[in-house]
Structures are given as C-alpha cells and as structure tokens.
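Fold this sequence, please.
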Amino acid sequence: MTDGRQEVHPLEENDVALKLLHTADWHLGRRFPSFEKGQEERLTRARLEAVRRTFDLAASSDVDAVLCAGDLFDEPSPEELWWQGLLKEFQRREWRRPVVLLPGNHDPIGRGAAYHADHPFRQSLPAYVHVVDRRGWELPIGDDAVVYASPCESKAGQTDLVASLPRREPGDERFRIGLVHGQTFDMEDHQTNFPIARGSAAERGFDYLALGDTHGFREVEPGAAAPTVYPGAPEATTFGERDAGHAAIVFFPRDRRRRAHVLQERVGRWTWREETCRSMDELRRLKEAPNLRKTVLRLVLEMELPMAEYDEAERLVTELGGSMASTPLVGVLVVERSGLRLASDAPIDFGSEMTVLQAAVERLRANALARPEVVEKALHHLYTLAREQG
C-alpha cells in the first residue's frame, strides 16, 4: 500500500477519503518558575487555550478523528485544575468523531496517573474520547481506516514502540495509521528516549506515522512513501524551540497510489524571542516591534551609555514590562541588565543651582570602583529626581 506512491498535491474535497488532525505535547499544567507569578500563570493558562483552538480547528476542518500523540499533561498526575479543564473542553463539544489520547513519557500510564482506569478524569471522559492503555491498541475509523498505538508506560525507556504495532497483513486495504511517542534516529547529539527506527512507517505498512515528543513541527524522512510527522507543541515551552505552535491536518487521497498530504496549521498565539540590544537604536526599534503582547521576550542589554541615554534605556525597559501605572507592551518580559553600564566618564551636570547634588555625584563616583552597580543606581536615582523637579 505504501510502496511507489506519488507525491500528493493539495486535494479537492471530493478527492479526500479520510481526514485527521494530529496534535501532541500540550504539557498542560507546565510550570514556568523562572518567571514572575502573574507571567507564569499567563503562560500556563495559554496551553489550555491552545488546546481549545486545536479542537476548534478540528471542528472547522471537519476531520474524521483527532490523534493526540502524548505528553498531553506535563506529569502523570496533574493538578485537578488541569484535568478538569481538559475534561470541560471535551464535555462542551457535541461531536462524535473519535479523539485518541496517547500517554507519553511525561504522562505515562500507570496507577495514580490521569489515564488510569481508576482516575476520575478517565472515568468522566465522553464516549468519543479513547485512551490508549495497552500495547498494540487498535481503533477502527469507519470501514476504511484503522489506528494502531502503544503508550509510554514509564518516563524513560529504550523500547521502540512502533515495533510493538502489527504489520500490514496481506489483503488489508485500509488506511493504516501508527500513533506513538518517542524520538527518531535523525536528532543530532540527542540521547534517544523510546527510539524509533528509520523506515518504521514503511516496514510496518503504515500510510501515516503520527509521533509526539519533539516540540517543533517536523517531517521525518521527507519524501518517503508514507509521512512520519511531529506536529510539535501547540505553544512553545521554552526559548529556542523552533516551529512550535502548530497542529497537522492529514488528507488521505482516494487514489491509493498517492501519498497522504500534511498541512501545517498554526494554533499557537505566543512567540518566544531572545534579543540582545547593543545600542539605543536597537532598543528603540524593539519597542515598535509587532505582536509584543503575545511575546515571551528575553532581553539582554549590552550597552555603555551616557546618563541621558542610560535614563532613556531604563524608561524604555519599564514601558516594555509595564508598571503599577501602565500596561506592559510585552506579554512576558525577562531582562538581563548586567551589561547595561553607565559610562564611567559620562558628564552628569545638575547645574550651578544644585551644588549639593553635584557634590553627591562626586562622592559617589569616588566609590564607583568598590560598588559600581550600587553607585550607578544611586547616580541614576539622583538624575531622575533632578529631572522630575525640572
């Protein structure tokens, strides 16, 4: 079934025999302890909001099934807030298309886990939601398709879970979809957890291999007879994750000689971005960047400035991050300011009428070598007071 297929182009609706949505790595309940409490709550809540948009996409695309390829929770036994939130998302929908939940290495199945038969989350799931709870699990999708899946039963392992799925039997003309969570052979310098062998889709006779684990959208072995795809996390979890924020819509053509077509669809709203500003012009331009309200920004300042520009830099950073009296321009901001320095020879002139302040400046500068950061803050404070007093 998978040998000799032609590369498929986008299909007309009447050419589509089966349509799936493939998603993974929601990491509901994930904490972000390096951020302030309000920022952490915003990012944690955003993950459930992205799941809602993912299911809205499934509904608007009129897919035949939704495959969720593991790490849906950030841990096996998430707080009730998160499994109740997901349960409400399922219960608010009136559809009957199958939704398959696969335990990953972050949320493996086992006693006490949300997927266990005794857990109230599992017990309260609507009938259309199916949990993969054993190796070689099977679910027919209509008469012409079948999903085979195996769950993670621990947080780490060297078992190739694709190898636990059955090969295509002679005469089986159905669309066969494999669903597992693990790491493929093509990840450079990466310690493999639940390894997936090269050519697994073809070797098992699958028309599509749905994977979870990698947080960026990626097709493994592009051009192979059957697509092997990571949809990535619907929202990034840290800096440096490229191509996060997507789900995959998979179209299976009626012409069985043709390859399934995979469409990458954006569901995320947040962008994680790292910027280093080495001049005031760069910092001023950053303030005008689009979509800052949905950006997680790590801002590194590497500048030595005269007092007037040093003061402007501090005010721009306050505008970006917000204050008690102003709304932040950036959704979540982390500032590394150790490289922001007041030029040691920068003139600070308060004028002849402020001789007391001018004398204080000289005394502070005399101690700059001993405690430079404290002196800079004190000098800036004096400058701010003088500016505010005209």
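DSSP finds eight helices and 17 strands in the chain. The first strand starts at residue 16 and ends at 23.
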